[in-house]
Request: fold
Amino acid sequence: MLSRLIAVALLGASLTAPPVMAQNAASGIRFKQIHQDVVVDAEGRRTMTTSSQLQVLTAAMATQFAQFPLRYEGTVQDVEVLEAYTLKADGRKLTVDPANVITQKAPQANALVPIYSDAEQKIVIFPNVEAGDTLFLTSRTSDKIALMPGQFVFSAHLPRAIEADDSIYTVTAPKTMHMTAASHEVTQDVTDHGDTATYRFAAVYRPDETKPVTP
Reply:
């Protein structure tokens, strides 16, 4: 699968942001916007705030994404849903009831091979989702502890088959962590903030174009 790549390494820990959507959903969804801001402290703990606007283009995708999972590791992470609502094609805004954010154990990849897992997920149940609607979701994931103190890694793979109008990822960390960054087919820049530095990665992509559009 062709994709654009963002990778940031700070002394080599191993935390990875998985792809946000299954490949088989690519033709039926469109990201109007996805902004993800990662702030890392000196110990290597991450706070990640993600805001997305996902338009479902078909009835099948409306059914699939009406229940949206946010996966995390329960012992070492917390997840909060800050805002969630369905924006109807006619402009109506239907807010997700807090009672419809359900916490549960994440399903195992293979139920026939049971292994211990601390993975949990919050299921966000959007109201009255139909083809053409846009799902707005803002969440925050916070690390309770640093898995490898003083170290951190972030990566994101952005599939070409999914239309994305406005994709921006930022990683801010202390300069003492000696950040190294690499990317492919996205715009990358860095901003100095004194004791910290922010790496910003941005891309716009439409499946009928051979390469992403530089924003």
Notes: The radius of gyration is 18 Å. The chain is about 5% helix and 55% strand. The first strand starts at residue 3 and ends at 10. The domain at 28-107+116-205 is CATH 2.60.40.3140 (Immunoglobulin-like).
